[in-house]
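Subgroup meeting minutes
Present: P.N., E.W., G.H.
Scribe: E.W.

1. P.N. recapped why we're keeping a running log of single-chain structure predictions: easier to compare across weeks, and new members can see raw inputs and outputs side by side.
2. G.H. added today's entry (223 aa).
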Amino acid sequence: MDKRPESRVSADIPVRMWGMDADGRPFFQNALAGNLSSRGAQLTRIRHTLKIGDIIGIQHGEIKARFTVIWVKNSVAPGRNEAGVEILAQQPSPWGEITKESRRTEVKATGAERRKFVRHKVLFPLDISFPDPHRAHMQCNSSDMSARGCYVDSLVPLSLGTPVTVTFWIDSEKIQTKGSVRTSDPGVGMGIEFTALEEHIQQRLQAYLETIDHGFASAASRS
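Output recorded in log:
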């Protein structure tokens, strides 16, 4: 009997990565690992060009491991390279506890719920404001967004748990929702969960993001 494919955890986590780039120069940087499994991950926000087959080091928390680069996707935008990595034999998974916890809780979510809020890696303008009216607003772009929340690039992200109000537009309609900072990665960015977005707005936003994403993909295929 064929072994059932291992499920993956989509949530991005901050990692440190190091090794030799495609030009043979040593590098060390922070990045994000997503699409996690016990065997590998997808790395994003990579500033260096990697080469398929090379071995790199990755650390999350206190756990370090060596990985093989199995695919790369380079971008003309700075810091936007991506790569897929697979862990070497006998190496501890840096995110093993995360994947174990996901397997324990996965049965609580229906398949429809998992498909409902797929994240889209699109630039989406946002305005972030605060309960204190005297605090300056933040005008920024989300680089990863769904109807549940977004990830905002920032060298100095807000602290975990910071309450915010997120404002954005769907076509000509202005939408506001309360949110909370759920991840804060210094030098990388922050993840914000939308905590008061009504279900019908969630559905509209998700459809709107899919339209934008498909538009970008079509334009890229014609270039």
